[in-house]
Amino acid sequence: MAELNSTPATSYARAAREWAPLDWWKLEARALHHLPRLRRALAFFAPSAAWRDLGASVAPAWGCLVTLSHIASFVLPIIAFLLIVPWVFDRDDIAQVGVAGILAGIAAVLGGNGLITEVRESLGTDPGIHRLLGALHLIPSVLAAGVAVLAISEEAAAGAFGVLGLVADVVVGLLHFLLFRGPAHRGSDRWRRNLKRLEEAVESMPPAERARVSADLQGALEVLAERGLIDGAEWDRARGVRIGLLGISMAPREDMTPR
Hints:
By secondary structure, this protein is mainly alpha-helical. It has 13 helices and no strands. The chain has helices spanning 8-15, 21-31, 36-43, 51-55, 63-84, 86-89, 97-120, 127-153, 162-179, 189-203, 207-226, 232-239, 246-250. The protein is elongated, with a radius of gyration of 24 Å. The chain crosses the membrane at residues 62-88, 94-116, 128-152, 158-180. Keywords: Membrane, Transmembrane, Transmembrane helix.
């Protein structure tokens, strides 16, 4: 994030050469630069182009390990599939169902943990991304499970218990599709849950911080109006918006529409 002074939003408004809907989110992100909990809660409602601004400095202490676990969660099912599928072309061999199942089971645990984290502390990731991740679990594990069942039926499987791990990963893949079926519409359970998180983050702000953020945003809006980057109607509308709701009110995500 560019400015770390006491009025970063006002500085952003002074530096802007033009004003687009995304700038409302960037303006708010700068005003909240020192409030990572609030920015994290706000990210659910923001367009993906604003996540870099809202996500700065909010990664958990073990963020690197979390990222590695996410990568492993969709790489392991593919490795499991590659371990077991050669048996299809050489029926005289033994299918390594046990090893494949262990890998898929680990992937299921990692993927399931990621799902729980996303449901509890969503960063607003596009549902399409979640469905893609679900496919990376579902497709290789479904195919591997089919091979495993066939090998077990022909008594050519080493570690038949491994089919349980494959099935578990299939379930995790399906959950990605069930939990992230489409846009996060207003009025949905996820919308209400994340709006509550946002409201709680705003309410937890110390009075002095609330006053500082409010003054910074009001100063930024005045600068934008004086420079002609926003019109009078936008200025009046934005001035009445509560902290944490500026981007949502002035430039809502197109895929978050009322039901």
